[in-house]
Each structure stands twice: as structure tokens, then as C-alpha cells.
Amino acid sequence: MTTIKESKKLIFILGALTAFGPISIDFYLPGFGDMANDLKVMPSQLQYTLTSFIFGLSLGQLIYGPLSDKWGRKGPLLFGIVLFSMTSFLIAFCSSLKALIILRFIQALGSCVGMVITRAIIRDHFHAKEVAKVFSLILLIMGVSPIFAPMLGSQLLQFFNWRVLFVCLGVYGVLAFLGTLFVVKESLKEPVAFKKSFLNYVDLFKDRQFMLASLITGTVMAAMFSYISSSSIVFMEIFQMSKNSYPLFFGLNAFGLIFASQVNVRLLNSYSINQILTGAINIFFINSLFLALVTAMNLNLYWFEFALFLVISCIGMILPNITAKALEFQKHRAGVASALMGGLQFLIGSLGTFISASFADYGVWSMVLSLMIFVTISFLLYTFGLKKYAASGISTSQL
Question: Where does residue 365 rank: exposed (0-12), middle (13-18), buried (19+ CB within 10 A)?
């Protein structure tokens, strides 16, 4: 097993790869208005480009998992990066919403390797508690994306049209390809036959700890995507923020998530993953109720942002630990486990964008209602499901 100190360069590259998904979402959010005008559609219709992208992230991970367990981590990883880069360049030439939705789906099939295979590589290299710490560090690296991506995108839109944003994503993919080629080493020790890989999916569905933890990662991501997909409409259309102000508020929430993830690293030195998860998910639920109260009372933007900040920050502490719980007993099938967890995560996550888009006529509530639904489900799944098994102190695959 590798130590974190020995793997700083590797962790940085894995963080950059994991950021494929977030940066592909956050970078173009400030351009929704310009894209809608250019493509002659309503801004709310562009939320379906997020839905198709997240659905692609979900499906693609289920494919790459078995491939990475059979042929290794590095080959499929490089293929996905190339697919991501090529599609990003093609999107810059889109002339219709339909073409954009389709290409975003294909782009996601490439970008998802930065999530599923990096998780498998991390599980290959580190022990369970170290995995939680590494995921917290990965969140720090990929968390820079929600802070700077909308700001950079907003600044580029001052001089160029929205198509340049996707050219930049293509260039980012080229740089990631070079970093992967020279830094990431093959970490798969024992290849698994395709038949066994797909049979592992069946076994994983029977593992209650894995399934409960994976479902919780999905509902937490759905809550976050409820916020992300409707944020530009809520802040810029309803609260009348400028293109320059919107990234500041979006970045502030991302900073809260990053800060919480780094607090989590420190807490793991003194507390168990189960103890931290229990506190974080309870606070997550309480903060969401506070957000609903602020919305119902029709308080001003700053109260709304404060409540939203509290909710989003909790995600930075929940995701690293719940991911570690899902992969805790899966070293022998890390690729497939990572794929199924990621597939469920983004399949459920896509519901967040779909529901918030469906509630578009309800103004601020389009975000809050969708977010509340998934926060509540996360709380119930953990409190009455995973927490019960975690307290037993054994792998639920043995039950």
C-alpha cells in the first residue's frame, strides 16, 4: 500500500481527472443566457443538456468499470480522455439544442473515466481510512473548479461567445491526457475476466452496506445537482444578479464544500468515519429545513445564500466518507464497485436536474423543493439503513 506523502503528484493528477465532470458543468453555466439566445431556446431548456450529461456519466461508468478490471486502469482512462477532448471541440460547432444534448451525452461518456477509474486507482493504492482522506484531498483539488470555472467562464464571455468555453474544455482534456500518460502508472494487479466482472455486479446488489452507501451518494449528488442546474436561473433570472456577481456566490458555496472536506481530513484523525457521517448527515437535514424556512418567509438574497451555503458545505464532509464506506470491503472488485456506485450516483443525480427543470415555473422553489426531496431521502437512508449496519461493526456482505 502507498502512503499519501509518497503520492502527491498522483493525487494531483487524479484530482484534475475527477474534475472533468464538475468543470464540464460549472464552466458553461454563466453562458446559459447567451446559449439560449444563439440557439433560440428558453434558458430553462438548457437544463436538459445537464440531464443528458449526468445520464451519460451514469451509463459510462458501468461500462468502464468491467473494462478497467479486465484490461487495467490506464488504457481505458486514456481512451476516455481522448473521447472527452474530441467531443468538447465538436460542441463548439453545435447549431441546435438537439445536437448539443446528444454531444453532451457523448462528452460525458468520456469524462466519466475521470471519476470511475480514479476511484478504482485510489482503492488500489490505499487502505480504507486513507481512502477517505485521499477523497477529501481530491475534493480540495476538484473543488477549485466550482470556484474558478464560472468566474473564468464569465470573463471569457466578456470577449468571446459561448463556443470558446468548450474549446477550453478540449484543451483541458489534452493537458490531462499528457499528465496521465507520464504520471499515472498501471495499478491493477489481478485482472478479472469479463464474465466475472459482470457477475460481480450481481454480488454487489446483494451487499447491503455497498448498496445503501451508493444510494446515499446518489441522493446527495441529486441534491447538489438540484442546486447546480437551477443556480444560474435562480441567481441571475430571479435575483437579477449580473454575470460577474453570479460566479462569486457560486464560488462561495464551492468554498464551503472545500473547507468542510478539509475539516473532514482533520476529524478523521480523531473520529471514526461512522461518527463523522452521523453528525454531518443530521446537520445536512437540519440545514435544508432552514433553507426551506428562509424561502417560505421570502427573505432577501443574502439570507437565502447563507442557508444554501450551510447545506452545500455539508456535502464536502459527507461525500468522502460515504464513498469510503461504499468501497470499504470492495478491494477485490474495485473497478466494478466504483462503476456501479458512480452509475447509481449520477443516475439518481440526473433526477435532481430533471426535477428542478420540471419545477422551473415555481421560481426559487424549483431549486429548494428538489434539493429538499433528496436531502430527506439521504437522511432516511442513512438513519434507518446504513447507520444500523455500521453500528454492527462488520461487513454487511457477511450478513
Answer: middle
Q: Residue 363: how many CB atoms within 10 A of its CB?
A: 15
Q: What angle do CA 322, 213, 59 make, to 5 degrees?
A: 105
C-alpha cell at 85: 477532448
Using CA atoms in the order 338, 111, 184, 224, what is the torsion angle rounded to 10 degrees? -60
Residue 2: its pLDDT value, please? 56
Quote the pLDDT of residue 279.
93
What is the C-alpha separation between 111 and 53, in angstroms, rounded? 9
What is d(CA 295, CA 304) in angstroms, rounded to the nearest whole number? 7
The three three-digit cell numbers of residue 7, written as one number = 503520492
Give pLDDT tens digits for 258-271.
889 889 888 988 88
Question: So where are the chain's domains?
Answer: 5-391
Regions of the chain short of the pLDDT cut 50 = 394-399
Burial letters for 269-302: b for 16+ Cβ neighbours within 10 Å, e otherwise? eeeebbebbbebbebbbebbeebbebbeeeeebe
Taking the alpha carbons at both ends of the chain, their separation in whole angstroms is: 28
Distance CA(139)–CA(332), nearest Å, equals 25
Check whether domain 5-391 has CATH 1.20.1250.20, yes or no? yes
Name the H helices within the chain: 8-18, 20-26, 32-39, 47-71, 74-91, 97-111, 113-125, 128-142, 144-156, 163-183, 194-206, 208-232, 246-267, 273-296, 301-327, 334-358, 365-381, 387-390
User: How far, in Å, CA of 108 to CA of 100, rounded?
Assistant: 12
Report yes or no: 149 and 22 within 8 Å, Cβ to Cβ. yes
